[in-house]
Structure formats: structure tokens, C-alpha cells
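Batch job 17 of 40 flagged for manual review because the log was empty.
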Amino acid sequence: MDTIELKHFVELFLKRYHSYTKQKYMPVWVEIILEIIKIAVPALIVFFTIYTLTKQFFEKQYQLKALEYKQKQTSTTVPMKLQAYERLSMFCERIAIPSLLLRLRTENQSAAALRISMLLAIQQEFEHNITQQLYVSKNLWEIIKFARDETVMTINGVAEKIESSADGKELAGTLLNYLGAQEVAVLDKALIAIKKEASIILG
């Protein structure tokens, strides 16, 4: 029963009761109670009406503030997410074995020295970009870590088959031959995952 129905019911009750008591004697205590009811009920009706309206007002204000906060968060986080995708794409490209060989291989460098240089470069690149995991999905970050680990395992696995004192050219050539035999490089799969998630953010 809402406030309007309650008020109507009370007024109807009082009207009928007064009509009845005009013909009969009414005790003083009954008159007092009726007077209290006549004063209290309208006051309660007003109170509950104000309470309901106030509650609706604050709920509306909360919804508006929540929407405003969400819009601000979106305008702030989307650029940071896109920057993270860009940096992680660059990370995958920089730790790709052909890219590492191009940057790190020098003349008269041993296979062991080249191997260490490549592994250190991968570790440094990873540490430089580790905070980007805050802006991408957990699944994507796991894919990127897996791609890094696979690259490290490839370098170590190939290097183990070559004498550490051998020329770095031999290690480089063997690594490139190994990659050439693979259908899809693991880092290429990571790049595809990055582009896919970024496209979802862009809508």
C-alpha cells in the first residue's frame, strides 16, 4: 500500500468513525487517540514521501557519478592500453632471433659470447617492459612470457649443439636455419594475439 492509498484509508476510517460516534457517547481517551492519529498519520505520510523522493534523488546522483567515473577511467586507460600493446609488439620484434643477431653479432665473436649477449638482451628487454602487464589481459601476458621462454630455449638448445669456442657465425647460421624450418614462429603468434586484443579495445 503506497502513501496515497494509506492516507485515503485513514481519512475514510476517521470519517466513518466520526459519523458513528455522533450518535453515541465517545470516551475522552478515544478522542485523544483519534486526535493523535489525525496529527501523526499525515506527518508520517509526509515523512515517507520525502524519504522516498530523497532516496531516489541520491540513487540517481550515485548512478550519474558512477557513469562519470567510468567515462573518465575509460578516457585515461585506453591510451595507456594502446601504448602497452605498442611496446609489447616492439618487445616481440626486438627479441626475435634475426633481430638479435643483427644487433649483437660482431666479428671474431665466439658462439658462447654471442649466446650470452642474446640471452642478456632478452632479459633486459623483458625487464624494461614488465610493467606493461598491468594494462593487458592476463592471458595475453602469459602468451608473451611463453614466447620469450620459447625464444630462450631455442637459443640455448641450438647453442648446446655447437662448440662454445666456435665462431659466432656458426651459431647465427644454425639459428637461422632452425627458424627457417618452423612454420610459424612463436613470437609471430604473440604479435597476432597482441593485435587481436588491441582491435577489441578499439572496437
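Reviewer: the log was empty due to a logging misconfiguration, but the result itself is present. The chain has two domains: 3-63, 77-202. Unflagging and moving on to job 18.
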